[in-house]
Amino acid sequence: MEGSNLIGYLPKKTVIHQLSGFTKLLCFLLISVVGMISYDTRFLLGLAVFSIILFRTAQISYHEISFVVKFIAFFSILNLLTVYLFAPEYGVTIYGTRHVIFEGIGRYTITQEQLFYEFNLLIKYFVTIPPGLIFILTTNPSELASSIHRVGGSYKIAYAFSLALRYIPDIQEDFRTISKAQQARGTELSKKASLMKRVRGNLTIAIPLIFSSLERIETISSAMELRRFGKKKSRTWLLAKPLKRNDYIALLVVIILCSAGICLLVVNGGRFYNPFR
């Protein structure tokens, strides 16, 4: 993990970074909702390409979020396998036909319908994950909190979310410091050590890290109580950006895309595009 961030704000001068946090949050929510509702493969592929283009526009490089990408990829693949294990014929139920590719053991056959359904699930990850990462990585934590509050969220929850993102880099730096101290004492935690040895070594790091994090939480809580945080129903925000021309353009583009997705629900007669009919 040396040299790479777990997750957090990456200040850069791009068009997406300059957008209001409110715009980015609203666009993320709209894309996520329509992406989760629709199972029209053609529309999802278009949204996936759009999300990847936005990701490239934000100039977020792989090495900056490599750990997060690997983590998400692992659980995405695990989810696809779990769907098949628990419902290997769900695609057949949805599309109403059954084209067998490979006869397995018992109910575990591989059909075109099931593969097509899981392919749609895979595309959905490319639709929803990039906008979420863009929102978190291109939005200052304080502005992020104000954005959550502007769309109707509690400012207490928004502030807690902001603090969590603000202190993730600090916790990661503490982890690296403790790791280096452990290695100076002779504990091998590099790739040269076995997997189990590294797991045990990292678990020993977790204990002091938890205690240092709890101490930090107590300090922050005391400071907020002294400033009477949460006593009023609303609050002002230092980094709340007003909407500008680019914000309105971004919102218009996303609304048009979402409207197209809603229209396809009517054209298809439901959420699913069925190429087997």
From TrEMBL:
Claim: Ribonucleoprotein is one of the keywords in the record: no
Protein's name according to its UniProt entry: Cobalt transporter
Highest taxon listed in the record's lineage: Bacteria
Compartments in which it is found: Membrane
Native organism: Enterococcus malodoratus ATCC 43197
Keywords: Membrane, Transmembrane, Transmembrane helix
Pfam family, one: CbiQ
Listed transmembrane segments: 15-36, 43-62, 68-87, 248-267
Its membrane topology: Multi-pass membrane protein
Broad class of where this protein is predominantly found: membrane
GO cellular component, one term: plasma membrane
Signal sequence interval, chain numbering: none
Family annotation (InterPro entries): ABC/ECF_trnsptr_transmembrane (IPR003339)
